[in-house]
Amino acid sequence: MGRFNTLEFGAAPEPAPERAAPGRGEVLKDAQFFLDDADRMFYRMEYEPALKNYSRAAGIDPGALGAWRGQVFSLIELEEYQEAVLWIGKANEIIGEHGDLLALRALAAARTGDFDRACGYSDAALESVGTGALPYVVRGEIFLYGRRNGELSFEQACSLDGSWQTRILIADACLFSHKRNSAMLALKFLHTAWEQNPNRPELYLRLAQIRAQLKDYDGAREALEQAAMLDRQLLVLPKLMEELRPRGFWSRLLGRG
Amino acid sequence: MKCRACGFDNLDTQARCVSCGTFLAVDAAEIPAGPPRARSRRSWRNRWYAWRRRRGFRWRPSKTTSKEATPEEPFFDAEACKQAVRLPLAALPGLPQLLLHRNIRGWIFAGTGVAGILWIALLPGTRWWLWGFAILVVGQVNSLCDLLPFAQFALGKRLLYSALLSFFLFFSLYSLYSFWGMQWLDRQGMQLPLHYAGGVLQGGDIVEIVEEEEYLPGMLVQVNSLVFTPQNPGANYYIPLGTVLIDRLLARGPEMVHIEDNNIFLGPARTPPDWTPLNPQWHWHNQELRLQADQYLFLPSWFQAQNIVMPVAQQGNIQGRVARIRWPWWRRTEFR
Predict the structure, then answer these.
(1) Residue numbers in B near A13 (CB within 8 A)
(2) Which of A128, A191, B276, B329 lies at a C-alpha separation of 20 to 30 Å from A100?
(3) Cβ contacts (< 8 Å) between A94 and chain B: which residues?
């Protein structure tokens, strides 16, 4: 019952619209359900279905910051930067400015090579109140592009939120930047997450990517097989296996491809 | 404001429903179903972005946060001292960058410097020769400016400082060449004459000068600074220091010389000579003069271009004749 239902200076309140209650044993598919599902897919690198679920969550609850953040992050991971910037504008209209959205704007600018703008947005994101680890992860990635030590920013991010999700974001940032020693940096931050959560297939996916970047293709295939053992439903596995398939002339000639 | 999910009547200032937490501020119709999507893969644009990311940027702390974030640096900064040591290394373009493992730019600067040196070494006899200094200077200035802490300046200032440094280096190198290089050439018995387009000699060929007892019309000769006209015997023309006048002797006195419509006629029979000045583009106004016994008609292209009164050389003003072209090697020619 509402707080103002008993006050007598207005008309009688209308009854609440009927919502179809879930049956016994049926999952309640509210915004949080789609958000959780989308998060799970996002960390498994399944960005297209994650984007759909984030959109559903934002449609149910437009005030869900996580849904908007996830949509924008998925667009950035899909390398659709202009769309991501447009969508950040839309999110700002609906839920207002937020540090995470500023950080994502900085990330989109950095990945398009607009580093002046990226630094400005990153500064604003770090100065905004109530932000989590994301602005520090983005700052670290910008530092990598600026040939500075991004490790300190990543450590600050981990001190704010040391979960395996944050460490995966750090690994993704390092892997995407393709800078010198960034693969080793990703491995360093992923190692702690791997020790704490040895049964996470998401971590093995990143491990495979790191090994592939370090030219250890056999190790990368091994990590992918490990991920497949932990979860057979990973949609990204065939694509990653295809990327790791040897494509050289001799490999094809000798039938190893 | 009533919640559209549970019907709870919230205050207007509430962003979310107090009862169920649904967002109140926006109508459902305003919420789009999903984000806009790219129409294509945009491979060329993503490649461009990837190139920019690989290129990276030089970090500058922002103006808003730099004052609080960066502590005051000590005057004797170790990094600054290292850079001061590295600065002289920039005399060899690209070397300090290679020592700092900035390999790509190091090789680019070194390559530019080597290209400039090769240009200067291989093309001294051509009109493009002077550009070699400019190419060398580009490599050196970039190498030097890469070491200097220019990142804190705006682009306009950086360009201005680079341009000033380029001018300074260019004229330093060229002066060094003019002083030492010309002296060396002189000691070797060679000269670098004025730049002009000629049929026999081309701009700036390095030629060997040989002294002779007697000079005959048709010879290519070098004349030193004293050149005068019989019409105005008191006037000596100023010839800049380092200018080497080389051209053909057209006639020898005593002789009557007429110039009409760019043709030179010798003697009372007005026979056209078999030779003309080196510059095929030469132009002279109509006139006639009588050469004395020790005088030669000498029309260097430099004078023709300035269209002054006909210069005449005396026997004592002739430095020597051009024996051969020494450089460039593909134009080596012997003159008899």
Answers:
(1) 2, 7, 9
(2) A191
(3) 25-26, 30-31
Least confident of B14-28, B60-74, B182-196, B249-263: B60-74
| Contact flag B46-A79 (C-beta cutoff 8 Å) | yes
Sheet with B245-252: list strands edge to edge. Answer: B190-191, B206-210, B318-327, B220-223, B245-252, B295-298, B312-314
Across the interface, whether the CB atoms of B62 and A123 are under 8 A apart is answered yes
Taking residues B113-127, what's their average pLDDT?
83
pLDDT at A26 over 70: no
Q: How many helices (DSSP H) and strands (DSSP E) are in chain A?
A: 14, 0
Q: Contact B19/B7 with Cβ under 8 angstroms?
A: no
d(CA B249, CA A47): 86
Tell me: pLDDT of A23 over 90: no
Sort out which chain A residues have CB atoms less than 8 A from B32's CB and list them: 90
Q: Which of A187-201, B181-195, B213-227, B284-298 has the lowest average pLDDT?
A: B181-195
Q: How far apart are CA A202 and CA B178, in angstroms?
A: 70
Q: What is the DSSP letter of B199?
A: S
Enter the DSSP assignment of B33.
S
- Which are the contacts of A61, defined by CB distance < 8 A and separation ≥ 6? A30, A31, A67, B21, B22, B23
| Spatial contact of B320 and B212, defined as CB atoms under 8 Å apart | yes
Structure confidence at residue B305 (pLDDT): 47
DSSP letter for B29, please: G
Interface list for A 227-256 with B (CB within 8 A): none
Residue A8, pLDDT score? 56
- Determine the distance in angstroms separating the CA of B303 from the nearest CA of chain A, rounded to an integer: 58
CA distance A109 to chain B (A): 10
At B251, give phi and psi (nearest 5°): -155, 160
Residue A32 CB contacts under 8 Å (≥ 6 apart), including other chains = A57
> Does B194 have pLDDT greater than 70?
no
- What is the pLDDT of chain B when averaged over all its residues? 77
What span, in angstroms and rounded, lies between the C-alpha atoms of B37 and B4?
Answer: 29
Q: Write out chain B residues lying below 8 Å of A85, CB-based.
A: none
DSSP-derived pairing of the beta strands B295-298 and B312-314: antiparallel
Distance CA B299, CA B38 (A): 73
Confidence check: pLDDT of A32 > 50:
yes
CB contact under 8 A, B62 and A58: no
Q: What share of chain B in percent tops pLDDT 70?
A: 74
- The structure's pTM equals 0.52
Give the pLDDT confidence score for residue B232 in this predicted structure.
46
> Are B56 and A51 within 8 A, CB to CB?
no
- What integer pLDDT is reported at residue B75 of this predicted model? 56
Structure-block tokens of residue B173: 């190198």
